[in-house]
Write a structure and sequence with these properties.
The complex is a heterotetramer of chains A (660), B (104), C (506) and D (477). With 104 residues, chain B is mainly alpha-helical. In chain B, 76% of the residues lie in helices and 0% in strands. Chain D has 477 residues and is mainly α. The chains are: A mainly alpha (660), B mainly alpha (104), C mainly alpha (506), D mainly alpha (477). At the A-C interface, strand 1, helix 6, helix 7 and helix 25 of A face helix 7, helix 12, helix 14, helix 17 and helix 18 of C.
Chain lengths: 660, 104, 506, 477
């Protein structure tokens, strides 16, 4: 940690970035206890704004201060929170809490602070009539505190601590309207699925801590750690070299939190929460945590080709799967949820594909993934805010009740158009630059198959995004529009976020290419490589093709909108896609039938009947023996004497073998 | 008077004791049982006297103990018979098997 | 302010309170409760002041390299010369923290049982006896005194559960008492074996721990002592008393029993079995880890199928106690420290759970999770506290559960043997099932639609809030600032660990 | 001036004679004075025994006051004092529905003769005097048990007791005759040397085996050891309650003294062998006693089984070395005397109208909490649960057994203690948990002043003996 005195003010007090949301949580929490909900909205928004400003100041001062530092990473502030093991044969292990500022964490701080502020402003409008808003804003600030803590983590233990806090705040926010059983079920599902992945993450941390004897990222990503991890370690059931297993376990944590393929079931249901929640948690910040974790551990992961391959495959498959499912969805928030899944699949597959098939790591892949995280955050948050406004007006989430909102909500319409263009990857908007980088890096790294999958998914993205756009804003109104209006508080953040969706790509591209270079292990050589020229052209063409097809099907003169909206009378494959390939039902079957009936019930029966039964049996047998002794006592003198005589003979025989 | 050895007397006493014990267990009449107890006591006395006669270093104490035991037996039987009489006045029976009200 | 007399005062004050209650009239409930609120409040302050002076004394102390536990506020008086029994009282890190934990839980317990009307005097006298026994056990370093206080703590359980309990109270009370006293019967044999086996004619733990017992002696008597103490901390085959006992016990009793008494078992194993018979420990633990792992993984599954809230909490205690024993069984420094921390964290956690369940039962008169729903709307304070307790239970960072569990897992992984490594992996993965049953219970009870018959329920009154807040402070205190607890425990675990290491490679 | 060590014994004889004469006088005034005189006399004797010092000199050639003997005298006097105090208020309140005691002074005189017999057992050094002492401690008991032979149950109990007692004394005499045969003389020392020579293999141990067996049969009856305890429940139930208390306290202590005197006197060389026998009999006795007591509904019969179990526990102590065993047994018998009297006092008060069964205790905690509290202390002391005296007593017993290396036997005995806790808690269940039938919740029970004093002192004794057992040091000095 550099000597604190030399650092400028903001860096010296980086902890304020964490302190402000925590203060807002505590303040609002107490305020709500005393039944003054109306105050909590403004207070938390002001504090979020202050945090945004201070966060940007920190990032700016960090940018200037870290010019000369290797990898631009510095730890301006940290303290020892908990020490494990003072003695014994193992060196003492300490877990600290602190702030590590380096390109990816600075970028995330800026993104989280910005989006948190705008969502707070948006929530004032969205939650105005909701009586429980006094409970909403503290939870939102708690989430901001947890996310910033996760992003600034200096060691993997601190990351796990805030990882869990993020999980809990998302549980609380998804289940915010707890009187709705569906919301409660969704929140429980979200927490348990992420908790399932976190268990493996914790196991990974424990393995790393035992082998490397430290939690700090700087130590974990070092060459020494990698060699140490190559030694085989026994996991009780099997013996395996620690590196691949530990890397896979750590990635599993991200797998659950970023809702990758088998564990994606909780994200679509998480839409039960209020829309501002979805906009901040399930679009920009929490679901990106898995990608952030993989980026943070990139040097270690890149040393393990098998794990890189796993990341690439999982990313690509989820991107494709989610894109296909998104096409058939009727609920606009579920469309956006699946689109988020698909974009995160892109980011992960970019990281995974950075491993050049001949060995070595393509630097461009890493920076492309981070660039996409940056741009995606803004336009996806914007799309959710737009969806929120639309739902506010239409009364429910289904496409069937929307349409023709162009005239009633002009600003929202224009912002939505900007976001849709951005996400579809139409040049010159931000999505094009970041997504094109990813696909290009895939081709460069020698993964043509992944590259083509990227391109096709790009087309699908354009198709379902424009379907979403046309069915909401164009065509004739499918429900009464008398009171439709654009709330001031909700439209202002939408418009503000439209700007970065448009220009973030162009402005930030050079910055990302220069600053975001992974510090690889010594024996992993970085590959520079140039762009494959044909990729941007192909990507743009496919995107335009998707857009035109969507226009033709849903907005053009011959568009049969009624048929597009009714999901029942469609061919079997369409209904299967609409029901999300029944993955949820499979998971439900596994958990309910197998885990509850086949495992829990027999164990409970075993506990009550066998173990408990054994104890009761002992009790009963003793009582029975007591009864026998009483039966023996039939009160007659003869038996008493007989026993006495028998006793005498018994003692005589006993004395026989005792005495020589 | 001579001619039988210590072990013969001991066997006799043991037999006497066994008969007394058997009688105590089998007889139903309480008086009979007390009789058998007397038999067992006297078997012990025979033992004492035999030991005093044949091999004891201090014959007087053996004989003394048997005399004492006879006296004590007397006292014991007096008390026992008094109790039997009192019980008989109430229960009108001397049969040991009928005395089974106290049980369980 | 840190004279040894104050330490002894801690277990005398409850007895004074009990003695004072004898002279109160039968129907004067409020006076009884006030007397006890004052006494246990004073005791809590006394415990806190002792803790402060203890921390001051052990400020920068490096952990001892010796194998003898350093005692603070120590006092050693001859008590029964015939068997060289001493009233040898002292405190090290773990004992001090456990005394503080007991003080907090009994203080909350008194306020949680403010509604006791029937024979209140006897209830509180027995409660005082229970607490005095627990205090005594934690502070005494003479084996006889420890065993005497240990059994005093078990004595009032029958009457407390039998008279003031609910449900199958007589059956549960008798089952609980008999199983615990059977456990202590094993201890009677073990303690006398240590006394006479060592030919030192002393019950002093520190002296006994230095005596090199022969290996065969240790191999025979370690399991006796382990299962003697283990029965109280619900080791696998002997855990069946815990669900029935806790389900039928009144609130304050189940708080105290699950919160503190079950820790006596773990504390006893740590203080007596492992400290005095290290070779026995290192030899037996590789086998004893299997029932312990069953404990850890087994509890959540059974809790999953339970309908009654108290049964769910009882089985969660079985699982958490399994973690405590796992921490001890791995014989690594971090593991033992983790199990000590888990004792404290689980004490606070279960105390809070049972307090809340008692309060909710007082209102809804049902503990069946399916019959309840949407209570959060009617009782926000109790609802939020229950959710916080639940999150502490499933190991959410920021609350005490996480700190203890992570220490145990890290410690357990340091033991290289395959069996232990397997059990550790199972234990780590069992945090998922823990989360499942806790959330199921919380959601079924607090969220979802509110049945109309619960429409008029009231939230917590002042005495219930005070009880809950005291325990919440404990949970957050340990969860947010675990540093000082870890350092305090270092001092007490180091000698034990050195003893173990010395035994493994003599 | 040092009091002559024989003073308590002579004073006791004088007291017994005085009471007998008062009985003969037979006028109403002497009847009224009998109890106060007896209680005062016994109390005086107890104080006297505390002041007197043991001395090695022998009176009448065989009678001497040894340190252990003196402690046993104190125990006997303490126990008899408690019995008389209990009897006084018990009979005045129309003892268990059978009317006040007739011929009180004769009753007390016989009581003191039993005491004298017990004194003799611990003071003599030859078999003859021992046999006479033992019989003196038993035959008056037949009279006491038969005091109310008039009613059906009393008569039956008396008969059973007499017949069994007579049989037992036959076995005693038979064993003494063989011991005399072996040693050629009645003196303990001579017998001990002969037994020692047999132990070294110079002579057949046939006779010794029968002698030991017969001896255990004799003492087994009096100490209610397993095969010989069948009479106990019936006699305890049939006899008047004070006599039952006397049987369970004084007679049992005398039997323990008798066994200790024999095991460490004449049979000392064969101690290892007799201790193994005692170990087995102790295990059997405590188990049968505990099992028998589980289903009892009548209080006195319940106390009978409990005393059989306690006998088993006391035997466990006898397995240890001489000084530790005697000290432990003495301390436990003191505690047992106090606790048993307390229990019987509570049962007497509770069972006055409804009869001494478990039903009479129902709802006691509501009717009179103080009495219920005393009952709880009593039951926990009998079960050996701290902080009351029973625990420390049991701990001494087990420490004596453990010092002989029988650790696993100690575990077995402690588990038996747990089994005993099961039925002792049943008593508390009646008092605290079982709801009173409606219409029966009448007011508190009448307790007259002497009973209050007795209950108070005993409660203090039982609780304090547990916490500050200086008494145990006094015993094991």
């Amino acid at each position: 940690m550099e000597n604190a005195a030399a650092l400028p003010f903001a860096l010296r007090h980086v902890w304020i970035v964490l302190a402000l949301p925590l203060l807002s949580f505590v303040l609002n929490g107490l305020w709500t206890c005393r039944k003054k909900e109306s105050w909590s909205g403004p207070i938390s928004t002001v504090l979020a704004g202050a945090n945004w400003i201070f966060g940007t100041l920190c990032v700016w001062q960090w940018w200037k201060a870290s010019a000369g530092l290797p990898g631009r990473s510095m730890v301006p502030w940290s303290f020892d929170w908990l020490t494990f093991g003072q003695l014994g044969t193992f060196r003492p292990l300490t877990a600290g809490i602190g702030a590590l500022l380096d390109p990816i964490s600075a970028m995330m701080v800026f993104v989280v602070a910005t989006i948190a502020f705008f969502v707070h402003v948006y929530s004032i409008g969205y939650m105005r009539e909701d009586p429980a808003r006094g409970r909403f804003f503290p939870l939102l600030s708690l989430f901001a505190f947890a996310m910033l803590g996760l992003v600034l983590a200096t060691n993997v233990f601190q990351m796990y601590v805030f990882w869990e806090l993020v999980g809990v705040s998302s549980y609380q926010l998804i289940g915010f309207w707890y009187h709705k059983p569906s919301a409660v079920a969704a929140s429980k599902k979200a927490f348990i699925v992420t908790r399932f992945a976190d268990a493996f993450f914790l196991l990974g941390i424990v393995v790393l801590a035992w082998v490397v004897r430290s939690f700090d990222f700087s130590v974990l990503n070092s060459a020494a750690a990698a060699e140490a991890l190559l030694r085989p370690v026994s996991f009780g059931f099997f013996e395996a070299p620690a590196l691949p297993v530990a890397a896979a376990l750590v990635f599993a944590g991200g797998w659950g939190k970023s809702a990758m393929f088998p564990l994606h079931i909780w994200l679509p249901d998480a839409m039960e929460g209020p829309t501002p929640v979805s906009s901040i948690i399930h679009s920009a910040t929490m679901v990106v945590a898995g990608v952030f974790l993989s980026a943070r551990m990139f040097p270690l992961f890149s040393a393990v080709p098998s794990v890189m391959g796993l990341i690439a495959f999982v990313g690509a498959f989820t991107a494709a799967f989610a894109a296909v499912v998104a096409i058939a969805q009727q609920d606009i928030k579920r469309i956006l949820a699946f689109s988020t899944l698909s974009q995160i699949g892109y980011m992960l597959f970019a990281l995974g594909a950075a491993a050049v098939c001949g060995g070595g790591v393509l630097v461009a892949g890493y920076s492309a993934s981070m660039f996409h995280v940056f741009t995606h955050a803004f336009f996806k948050c914007l799309l959710f805010l737009v969806a929120g406004s639309v739902i506010h007006v239409a009364g429910n989430n289904m496409l069937s009740c929307m349409g023709g909102l162009r005239t009633k909500m002009p600003l929202t319409y224009l912002s939505a158009l900007a976001a849709t263009l951005a996400i579809s990857g139409i040049p010159p908007f931000s999505g094009f630059w970041s997504k094109d980088e990813i696909v290009a890096s895939a081709f460069q790294a020698g993964h043509p198959v992944l590259g083509t999958v990227g391109l096709l998914v790009g087309a699908l993205t354009a198709f379902y995004m424009f379907r979403f756009f046309f069915l909401i804003f164009h065509g004739e109104a499918r429900s009464d529009r008398s009171h439709a209006h654009e709330d001031r508080w909700m439209t202002f953040p939408i418009v503000c976020l439209a700007i970065p969706s448009l220009c973030a790509g162009i402005l930030a591209k050079p910055l990302f290419e220069s600053a975001f270079r992974p510090r690889l292990l010594p024996w992993v050589q970085a590959v520079e490589g140039t762009h494959a020229a044909f990729v941007p052209v192909a990507a743009t063409l496919l995107a335009l093709l998707g857009a035109v097809a969507a226009w033709f099907l849903y907005c053009g003169p011959k568009a049969d909108v009624a048929r597009a909206l009714d999901a029942e009378h469609r061919p079997a494959w369409y209904r299967l896609v609409y029901r999300k390939f029944c993955i949820d039902e499979i998971w439900l079957f596994v958990v309910r039938r197998i885990l509850f009936e086949r495992v829990a019930a027999p164990i409970k029966w075993f506990d009550r009947k066998i173990v408990d039964g054994a104890m009761n049996l002992v009790g009963k047998s003793v009582v029975l023996a007591g009864w026998c002794v009483n039966a023996l006592q039939n009160g007659s003198l003869a038996t008493a004497l007989a026993f006495a005589a028998g006793g005498f003979i018994l003692v005589w025989l006993l004395a026989g073998n005792l005495f020589p | 008077m001579t001619g039988f050895s210590l072990s013969a007397v001991l066997v006799l006493a043991a037999l006497l004791f066994a008969v007394g014990l058997y009688g105590l267990l089998s007889r139903r009449n309480l008086i009979g049982m007390l009789l058998c107890v007397e038999l067992m006591l006297n078997a012990a006395n025979v033992n004492l006297v035999a030991f005093a006669r044949f091999e004891s270093g201090d014959p007087a104490s053996g004989a003394l103990l048997s005399v004492f035991s006879i006296a004590i037996a007397g006292a014991e039987m007096a008390v026992a018979l008094a109790i039997l009489v009192a019980m008989h006045r109430r229960r009108r029976t001397l049969d040991a098997d009928e005395l089974n009200e106290l049980q369980g | 302010m840190s004279s040894p007399l104050l330490l002894s005062a801690i277990w005398v004050v409850p007895l004074l309170a009990a003695f004072a209650t004898l002279f109160l009239k039968r129907d004067d409930h409020l006076a009884v409760k006030l007397v006890h609120a004052v006494c246990h409040g004073g005791n809590l302050l006394l415990a806190i002041s002792l803790l402060v002076s203890f921390l001051a004394e052990t400020e920068g102390a490096l952990p001892a390299s010796g194998t003898v536990t350093q005692l603070h506020f120590a006092m050693d008086r001859i008590w029964i010369p015939a068997l060289n029994i001493h009233y040898n009282v002292g405190v090290d890190g773990l004992s001090m923290l456990m005394i503080l934990l007991t003080a907090m839980i009994i203080f909350a317990g008194v306020f949680a049982s403010w509604g006791i009307r029937d024979r209140a005097r006897e209830f509180f006298i027995l409660l005082d006896l229970l607490v005095a026994g627990v205090y005594g056990t934690f502070m005494s370093f003479d084996l006889f005194a420890l065993f005497l206080f240990y059994e005093v703590a078990v004595l009032p359980m029958y009457l407390l559960i039998g008279v003031w309990g609910t449900g199958r109270k007589e059956y549960s009370a008798m089952k609980l008492t008999l199983m615990l006293v059977a456990g202590s019967a094993l201890l009677m044999g073990g303690i006398l074996a240590l006394y006479f086996g060592s030919h030192l004619q002393t019950f002093d733990l520190n002296v006994l721990s230095q005596y090199p017992f022969p290996r065969s002696f240790q191999r025979l008597f370690f399991p006796i002592l382990f299962f003697g103490f283990g029965v109280l901390s619900a080791i696998f085959p002997f855990h069946t008393w815990s669900p029935d006992g806790h389900a039928s016990a009144p609130t304050a009793v189940s708080m105290l029993h699950a919160g503190v008494l079950m820790k006596l078992g773990g504390y006893g194993i740590l203080r007596v079995a492992m400290y005095v018979l290290p070779e026995g420990a290192t030899e037996w633990f590789p086998w004893l880890i299997l029932p312990i792992a069953v404990n850890v993984a087994y509890g959540p599954f059974v809790a999953l199928r339970q309908r009654d809230l108290k049964y769910i909490t009882a089985y969660s205690s079985v699982s958490h106690l399994g973690l405590v024993l796992l921490g001890l069984a791995v014989c690594t420094f971090t593991g033992i420290k983790g199990s000590a921390m888990q004792m404290i964290s689980h004490g606070l956690l279960t105390g809070l759970f049972f307090a809340l369940i008692g309060m909710i039962y007082g209102r809804t008169h049902t503990r069946n999770v399916d019959e309840m729903g949407g209570l959060m709307k009617r009782m926000p304070f109790l609802g939020v506290s229950f959710v916080l307790a639940g999150f502490a239970g499933l190991g959410l960072p920021g609350l005490s559960g996480f700190v203890a569990e992570s220490t145990i897992f890290l410690g357990a992984f340091e033991n290289p043997s395959a069996v232990v490594r397997g059990c550790t992996v199972v234990a780590i993965l069992s945090i998922v099932t823990t989360a499942v049953y806790i959330l199921r219970a919380a959601n079924r009870m607090l969220h979802g639609p509110l049945p109309e018959r619960f429409g008029t329920l009231t939230d917590a009154v002042w005495n219930e809030r005070l009880a809950v807040i005291v325990l919440l402070i404990g949970l957050f205190g340990m969860g947010l600032f675990p540093g000082w607890i870890a350092d305090a425990l270092d001092g007490s675990v180091a000698p034990l660990f050195n003893n173990l290491v010395r035994a493994v490679v003599p | 001036m040092t009091l002559p060590s024989i003073l308590p014994d002579v004073a006791l004889l004088a007291l017994a004679a005085l009471l007998l004469l008062a009985g003969l006088a037979g006028n109403e005034k002497s009847e009224r004075l009998a109890f106060p005189a007896a209680i005062g006399g016994t109390a005086l004797l107890f104080l006297l025994s505390l002041l007197v010092q043991p001395s090695p000199e022998k009176f009448l050639g065989c009678w001497s006051v040894t340190p252990a003997g003196l402690h046993f005298r104190q125990l006997f006097l303490f126990a008899t004092l408690l019995v008389e105090a209990f009897a006084r208020s018990y009979f005045r309140r129309g003892g268990d529905g059978k009317g006040p005691l007739e011929r009180g002074s004769e009753f007390l005189a016989t009581l003191h003769l039993v005491l004298l017999g017990a004194f003799a057992v611990v003071s003599v050094d030859n078999l003859l005097a021992l046999f006479v002492g033992l019989e003196l401690a038993t035959i008056p008991l037949y009279c006491l048990v038969a005091w109310r032979a008039g009613d059906r149950r009393g008569g039956e109990a008396a008969v059973k007791y007499v017949v069994m007692g007579a049989g037992a004394s036959c076995f005693d005499l038979f064993s003494f005759s063989y011991l005399y045969g072996l040693a050629g003389s009645l003196d303990f020392g001579a017998v001990a040397t002969r037994v020692a020579s047999i132990q070294d293999g110079s002579g057949s141990s046939g006779l010794l085996r029968v002698a030991v067996a017969a001896l255990f049969a004799g003492v087994g009856f009096k100490l209610t050891i397993f095969p010989f305890q069948m009479w106990a429940p019936d006699v305890y139930e049939g006899a008047p309650t004070p006599v039952t208390l006397l049987l369970s306290v004084v007679s049992k202590s005398a039997a323990v003294a008798f066994l200790l005197v024999l095991m460490h006197g004449p049979l000392a060389p064969a101690l290892a062998k007799t201790q193994e026998l005692v170990l087995l009999l102790s295990a059997l006795t405590m188990t049968v006693g505990n099992l028998g007591a589980i289903h009892q509904r009548h209080l006195r019969r319940f106390m009978a089984y409990s005393s059989v179990a306690q006998a088993g526990f006391i035997l466990a102590a006898l397995v240890g070395p001489a000084d530790r065993a005697t000290g432990a047994a003495l301390f436990y018998l003191f505690v047992y005397a106090a606790t048993n009297t307390l229990a019987f006092a509570v049962f007497a008060v509770a069972g006055e109208e409804r009869g001494e069964t478990f039903e009479c205790l129902r709802g006691l905690s509501r009717r009179s909490p103080a009495l219920a509290g005393i009952l709880a202390v009593c039951m926990f002391s009998l079960a050996g649960i701290p902080p009351v005296a029973g625990f420390v007593g049991k701990f001494f017993l087990f420490s004596s057994a453990a010092s002989a290396g029988h650790y696993l036997f100690v575990v077995f005995a402690a588990l038996n203690g747990t089994l005993s806790l099961y039925y002792y808690l049943h008593v508390l269940r009646e008092a605290y948990i079982v709801p009173e039938e409606e219409g029966k919740e009448n007011g508190a029970l009448r307790v007259d002043p002497l009973q209050k004093v007795l209950l108070g002192c005993l409660l203090l004794a039982v609780v304090l003996l547990g916490l500050l057992p200086q008494l145990s040091d006094f015993l094991s000095r």
